[in-house]
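Hi support team,

I'm filing this because I wasn't sure whether my run with (2R)-2,3-dihydroxypropanoic acid finished correctly. The job status page said complete, but I'd like someone to confirm that the output block is well-formed before I use it downstream. Pasting the exact inputs I used:
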Amino acid sequence: MSARILSTSPLVGPALAELGARFPDLRLASFRSPEWHAALPQAEALVVLLSEPIAEADLEAAPKLKAIGTYSVGVNHLPVKACQTRGIAVVNTPGVLTDATADLALALLLALTRRVAEGEALVRSGAWKGWAPDQLLGPGLAGKACGILGSGPIGLAFARRAWALGMTPVFWDREGRGGEVDFGAGRAPRLPLADLLARSAVLSLHCPLTDQTRGLLDRAALEKLPKGAVIINTARGGLMDENAAVDLLESGRLGGVGLDVYEGEPRVNPRWFQAPRAVLLPHLGSATVETRETMARLLCEGLATALGSPSR
Ligand code: DGY
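And here is everything the job wrote out:
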C-alpha cells in the first residue's frame, strides 16, 4: 500500500477528508498495523493521535517524510529533536483547545470538592435517605490559593476560572521566571516551586511533559502541599509520581486528586481504582465537538503547508 498521507484516524469533522481531496494519496490504517508499516516508506506525512508514540526507527522507515501531524497540542510522544535534525515538520494543535481543557480542569475541581460522583452514585443506588446537615461535605474554594504549574494559555485560562470562584491564582513556570503573570482577569505572582506548593490549597497542572518536567511532582514535592490540598491533572500523567499521590491520599494528607491523564495511559495504575477521594476521567480535555473539529482543521492546514502544492 502506498500513501502520501498516512493517518491512523479520520479525525472529527470534514478536515481530513478535504485534505484527502487535495492530496489524493491519503490512506487510513490503524497505528502499527501491517498496512501502516507497509505504507511508511512512501509516506510524506503522518497523522497520529497522542496515544501513538512515534520512534526514531519509524523516521528511518519513512525516508520521504516531510511532516508528522499530531491531533493534540502535546508532542511528548514524538521524536521532536530527531524530526528537527531530519527537517521533518512537527504539526500540532496549539491555541484551539485552551478553553475546553481549562473547562475540564474546572469540572474535575468541582466534581472533587463538591463530591459530585459520590452524590450521584448515592442517589442512583437508591440508598439516599434525604438531606442531612453533614452529608457529603467538601471544602469550599473561595479565598484559597490556587497553584498553577505552567503559565501558557491553558494555565492562564484555568486561572481565570479559579479567580471567578474567588480563588487567588499563583503560578510557577518551567523557565523559573519571577515577576507577575497577567492572566486576563488580574495579575498573579510567579513563585519558586517550593513556595507555590507550600501555599496551594488547589494545585492544577498545565505544563507540557518534557525531560525537564517529567516527575516534577515527586514524593518530596507532593509532601510540601498543605494538608487537605487537592490536585488536578489535565496535562500529562508523567508529571506526577502517581504512587506517591495515592499514598498521600490514603494517609489523608491529600484532600483529593482529579485526573484526566495517566502515566502510560490507557493503562491506569490499579491503585487509583481503590483510592479515596479520586475522580478519574478518560483524557477528555479537548473533547468538545467544536474543539475536535477545529483541531482537525488546524492540523490539516499545517500538513498542507508542509507538503506544498498538491501534485496533479
Ligand atoms: C492534548 O491535545 O495534548 C491534550 O492532552 C488533549 O486533551
